[in-house]
Design a protein that fits this description.
This protein is α/β, with parallel strands linked by helices. It has eleven helices and twelve strands. It has helices at residues 15-20, 58-70, 98-109, 140-157, 171-181, 202-208, 228-240, 254-263, 274-285, 291-305, 315-325, and strands spanning 31-38, 44-46, 54-57, 75-81, 114-119, 132-134, 137-139, 161-164, 188-195, 244-248, 268-272, 309-312. It binds ligand PBG and zinc ion.
Length: 326
């Protein structure tokens, strides 16, 4: 006999009561803002499929980070767009490249901002693959030293966290060993441990010019049908020394976020990816959904599923909404 003894609506009647019994909260500390950075000055070049997202030159990226800081954002993740690409990703560990330059400037000017960097070769290779390619095959073990070199380059510039997104086997161990050898034992690794081969990355690849020129990423990124494999991937990366793990994409993988969270005891990050952002923005621009409301509900769902942190292109907008709520 529950009704009329129990009336779940009682706790929903007033705004404040409803608020204090809320089980999950989103706050600005949860948000990590992704930025695309390239050479040049005064550039903020918009990404057609991602309204509100720009490819910045280093000076403009620094300005964007100042703004993020004013919004209360504590962490950014940087993606480099090099001037030159070749088959061995020569510019992936360039001490004078846009990522290294921006890290140094950020650390000098906004020392409290947590600076994370994406570590992968696909934006630096002319074929757009995440590793060294021989006879049409992505060579796992040959790629590892290049990823390690890239991570050390970012650490040397001052990155707090390096985030390998390539999905090569053994890359966390290789990066950890290289960092430690060069004295960067305090640089953290956020591993893109559970990264699916997803059609949701399309707009990102437009922004980064990193779409593979032949083939796909199915030999290293995971099959969207697999959940147990996600648990295995996260466990392997933690064994190899990952300080935090990631599930990517987020919105279609809330079950994976939940399951990985249950199985690990390190902080877990969800990546609200480019395609998720593009879908929301397109529907909102057409007036078909309330963009702000859907954004906040979407981000909250990722936290409810178990994400401790969320990488999202919506970070500044979400921070604005959170501020309005207070
Ligand atoms: C690089 C990388 C990608 C994303 C993050 N790092 C693209 C890919 O794997 O092709 C996707 C991010 C997004 O879609 O927002 N490997
Ligand atoms: Zn890649």
């Amino acid at each position: 006999m529950s009704f009329p003894l129990h009336r779940p609506r009682r706790l929903r009647t007033s705004g404040s009561l409803r608020q204090i019994v809320r089980e999950t909260h989103l706050c600005t500390d949860d948000l990590i803002w992704p930025l695309f950075v390239m050479n040049g000055t005064g550039i903020s070049d918009d990404v057609a499929s991602m309204p509100g997202v720009f490819r910045y030159s280093v000076d403009m990226a620094l300005e964007a980070c100042r703004e993020a800081d004013r919004f209360g954002i504590r962490a950014v993740i940087l993606f480099g767009l090099p001037d030159h690409k070749d088959d061995v990703a020569s510019y992936s560990a360039d001490e004078q490249g846009p990522v290294a330059q921006l890290i140094r400037k950020l650390k000098a000017e906004l020392p409290k901002m947590v600076v994370m960097t994406d570590v992968c070769l696909c934006a630096y290779t002319d074929h757009g693959h995440c590793g060294i390619v021989r006879d049409g095959v992505i060579c796992n073990d040959e790629t590892l030293p290049l990823l390690a070199k890239m991570a050390v380059c970012h650490a040397r510039a001052g990155a707090d966290v390096v985030a390998p997104s390539d999905m090569m086997d053994g890359r966390v161990a290789a990066i950890r060993a290289a960092l430690d050898k060069d004295g960067f034992e305090n640089t953290s690794i956020l591993s893109y441990s559970v990264k699916y081969s997803s059609a949701y990355y399309g707009p990102f690849r437009d922004a980064a010019g990193s779409a593979p020129s032949f083939g796909d990423r199915k030999t290293h990124q995971m099959d969207p049908g697999n959940l147990r494999e996600a648990i295995r991937e996260a466990a392997l990366d933690i064994e190899e020394g990952a300080d935090m793990v990631m599930v990517k994409p987020a919105l279609s993988y809330l079950d994976v976020i939940h399951a990985v969270k249950e199985s690990v005891n390190v902080p877990m990050v969800a990546y609200n990816v480019s395609g998720e952002y593009a879908m929301l923005k397109a529907a909102a621009a057409n007036g078909w959904i309330d963009g702000e409301a859907v954004m906040m509900e979407t981000l909250l769902s990722m936290k409810r599923a178990g994400a401790d942190l969320i990488i999202t292109y919506h970070a500044l907008e979400a921070a604005t909404c959170l501020r309005k709520d207070i």
